[in-house]
From TrEMBL:
This is Entericidin EcnA/B family protein. It comes from the Bacteria. It comes from Rhodosalinus sediminis.
């Protein structure tokens, strides 16, 4: 069940971003947003 959920999550991320680099940028952007909450 967890493996299927992880696969679906990865597929959705790839479809939304188009590239692995795009996913990295999305994660970095989200991390900066959360970091801003704690400043």
């Amino acid at each position: 069940m967890i493996r299927a959920l992880a696969t679906l999550t990865l597929a959705a991320a790839l479809a939304g971003c188009g590239t692995v680099d795009g996913i990295g940028q999305d994660i970095s952007g989200a991390a900066r947003t959360v970091e801003g909450w704690f400043r």
